[in-house]
Amino acid sequence: MATPFSTQLVNLLAAFLLLLAFAMLAQRRVLTLIKMFAWQGAALAASTLIVAWSTGQHHLYFSAALTLALKVIFIPWALHRLIDRLNVRWDIETLINIPATMLIGIGLVIFAFALATPIAQMASTLTRSTLGIALAVVLLSFLMMIVRRKAVPQVIGFLSMENGLFFAATSATYGMPLVVELGIALDVLVGTFIFGIFFFHIREQFDSLDIRHMEKLKED
Amino acid sequence: MTTASAVAFQLLQSVFVVLVAPLLIGWVNQCRAWLQNRSAPSILLPYYTLAKLFHKDAVIAHDASPLFRLTPYVLFGCMWLASGIVPVLATSLPFAPAADVIALVGVFALARVFSALAAMDIGTSFGGLGARREMLIGFLAEPAMLMTMFTAAFISGSTQLTTIVDTLGHREFAIHPSLAFAAVAFAMVLLAENARVPIDNPTTHLELTMVHEAMILEYSARHLALIEWAVALKLFAYFTIGIALFLPWGIAQAGDWAGLPLAIAALGAKLALGGAALAVTETVLAKLRLFLAPEFLSTAFLLAVLGMLIHFLVLG
Amino acid sequence: MEIALVLGVPLAGGLILALVGHLRWAPEVNAAMSLVTLGASALLTGRVIADGPMLALDEQFFVDPFNVFLVALTAFVAFTTALFSRPYMRIEEHHGRVNAGRLRLYHSMYQLFTFTMLLCLLSNNVGILWVAMEGATLTTVLLVSLYRTPASLEAAWKYFILCGVGIAQALFGTILLYFAAEKVLGPGGSSLLWTHLYEVRHELEPTVLSLAFVFLLVGYGTKVGLVPLHNWLPDAHAEGPTPISAVLSGLLLNVALYAVVRSKVLVDGALERNFSGNLMMGFGLLSVVVAAFFLSRQKDIKRMFAYSSIEHMGIMTFAFGMGGTVAAFAGLLHMTVHSLTKSAIFYTVGHAAQATGTQEMASIRGLIQQSPAIGWGLALGTLAILGMPPFGVFTSEFMVLTTAMHEHPWATPFLLIALGVAFAAIFSKVQPMVFGETEARRLPHPPALIPVFVHLAIVLLLGLYIPPYLVDWYRQAAALIG
Question: Residue B192: which of B298, B39, B111, B98 has the closest Cα?
Answer without folding.
Answer: B298
